[in-house]
Prior knowledge:
The chain contains 13 helices and 14 strands. By secondary structure, it is of the alpha+beta class. The chain folds into two domains: 3-53 and 290-422, no CATH class; 92-277, no CATH class. Strand 8 (194-197) and strand 9 form a beta hairpin. The chain is elongated.
Amino acid sequence: xxxxxxxxxxxxxxxxxxxxxxxxxxxxxxxxxxxxxxxxxxxxxxxxxxxxxxxxxxxxxxxxxxxxxxxxxxxxxxxxxxxxxxxxxxxxxxxxxxxxxxxxxxxxxxxxxxxxxxxxxxxxxxxxxxxxxxxxxxxxxxxxxxxxxxxxxxxxxxxxxxxxxxxxxxxxxxxxxxxxxxxxxxxxxxxxxxxxxxxxxxxxxxxxxxxxxxxxxxxxxxxxxxxxxxxxxxxxxxxxxxxxxxxxxxxxxxxxxxxxxxxxxxxxxxxxxxxxxxxxxxxxxxxxxxxxxxxxxxxxxxxxxxxxxxxxxxxxxxxxxxxxxxxxxxxxxxxxxxxxxxxxxxxxxxxxxxxxxxxxxxxxxxxxxxxxxxxxxxxxxxxxxxxxxxxxxxxxxxxxxxxxxxxxxxxxxxxxxxxxxxxx
Length: 424
């Protein structure tokens, strides 16, 4: 028998036992669906997360307020290790004020863009004439550099400028969702129109380009005003802390920029040489690295689920192949009687096992990619295919088919043709 004849016979045998084959294929497909589906979703999540931080990329960092450290008895940690810098109790747990943020911008001489910003402590309602939005509009207080450092771009009109910040005049930038809701698709219509944000009038000076959504939250359903107006109208907490964002032109400058930022900000925060920093500096890519590191645990869990399911499928497949050997004993004897060799019998059963396993892989891969990309659709990412995991799934299923069919194939090859022909 040639290889072609053996394969043809294996395919015919698989087709003739449709119910048995279908059940085994379904079990294998479930394992591969879990493996491919979860990893496809993870790829989509990574893609969206990296897109969200790509606006600052690896060349930016954020200075933010540091929460006071507390011990088990809910008291601030007061004791430090001998030789370490001490914490100044009177200066710990203090937010970054507007004066400190502005002082940093004035004192920071490194060649970089700097933005001071604050977020409103509640979502807002935006109204125009007799129409209004739901109370879920994201309200941000920024400065002239905020849009550039956070991946926003002005489609029509102009950005905030230093005069807007200094005078605190009521002007704003609106996201595409708000502009379209009130004024239609024409991006020029909203300019110079007066909208009311929580019943406070603001004049629209610019419309932002569409940016999409992140983790279910639209980045186009927002209003950007000056941080002075957020403090005045939309932040009831007098101790609300500012964030300071810095972006340099080259990744090689990032460490020097962070070092100079620390040196410039410590005196502003009234720290002496012996005291620890009471603020945090986060690199823009550290958030993405943290998420990717956490997602690796989900990947391992998906792999474990897939392997457990496939082990069960392999046992079931081996059982089916052993039953097939018993059912086809007389057929095996006939093949041997007309000149069939042991290796032909072995190959036939091995090919049958591998074909069933690869059919399960094919269905599982397709279902897994579809299910994983449903997550991608919800996150507004492009269609993704984790080719490395697809290849891994095919290899795993091939090994499952090979190992599950090996013992039944050897058993079938060893059958005595005379005893096999007499088998009832």
